[in-house]
Amino acid sequence: MADPRFFPASGPHRLADIARAAGASFEGDGERRFAGVAPLQSAGPEEVSFLDNRRYAEALRATGAGAVICAQAFAEQVPAGCVALVTAQPYLGFARVAALFHPRPAPVPGIHPTAVVAADAVIGEGTEIGPYAVVGAGARIGAGCLVEAQVTIGAGVEIGDHCRLLAHCSVSHAILGSHVVLHPGARIGQEGFGFAPTPDGRFETMPQLGRVLLGDHVEVGANSCIDRGSQGDTVIGPGSRLDNLVQIGHNVRTGRGCIVVGQAGISGSTVLEDYVTVAAQAGLTGHLRIGAQARIGAQAGVMNDVPAKTDVMGSPSMPVREFWRAMAKLKKLGAGREG
Description:
There is one protein chain. This protein is 13% helix and 27% strand. It has four helices and 39 strands. It has two domains: 13-101, Udp-n-acetylmuramoylalanyl-d-glutamate--2,6- Diaminopimelate Ligase, Chain: A, domain 1 (3-Layer(aba) Sandwich); 169-339, 3 Solenoid (UDP N-Acetylglucosamine Acyltransferase, domain 1). The strands form seven sheets. It has a twelve-stranded mixed β-sheet. It has a ten-stranded parallel β-sheet with strand order 8-11-14-17-20-25-28-31-34-37, with no helix packed on it. A six-stranded parallel β-sheet has the order 9-12-15-18-23-26, with no helix packed on it. The relative contact order is 0.06. The protein starts with 12 loop residues before the first strand and ends with a helix. A hairpin with a 4-residue loop joins strand 38 and strand 39. Helix 1 (15-22) crosses helix 3. It is flat and about 80 Å long. The chain is α/β, with parallel strands linked by helices.
């Protein structure tokens, strides 16, 4: 089970309530109680586990779990005494059950004595402002938010309801929607990387006069950076997720539900349409348009626009089939030289 020092638990919960949370059907006693969640290999009779990958079918058949969330195809492989909670989306179902047993702690309303809050800042009802946090002049923070230790919120920033700003993150020149999460060390709204060379070989900074707009339910990973726009705004669309150590340049715009994985970088003024995925360590040059539902492979170097629903890999990037054909030819070429 999860370490209670770090993950306070609720429960025990009835099987019927667990099934409802998972969106699953079951056969058996709905009043049966369960104490928590655990992996297939270590779960006990009072714990719920899940299976969403057939490679773990053997672990399913040997599990000691009291209930397993799984697809219909695996229901008959659940051991005797274990309840099959059948759903078309086992991973999503398990995520909701895990959240049932381990809900996020609610904010503790109030302002810590060491926090520095401007006199004209507006703090919503039920919001917690933690130790040594700083809230600048004219900032507005919505209801039910959590602002952890040493967070810095700049002057004029607006933050929607039920947001979570975790330790040491900073926000300036930005407007955040509701249910936004900024993980530790995230940097939002800092000056973008813009400068003009002078005739004598120096660089003069181009004023960065835009903002950052984060849509509802955006999450930004630890130590990720989103630069504010230079003349317009940098926009991260609703429901988008940025992993840790992601760099978003000035004036980048993403649509809804985009995913950018760790150490990826997106250069200025590039547009990602809805539901684009950018895998780890990929790099996108500036002023590109990536079509809706396109997928950029890990470590890809993208230098041209990508059409919608297209998968690309490699550096320079190319459609996936072309990439694998090229790799096959390189292997044959290498084998020929060795011979």
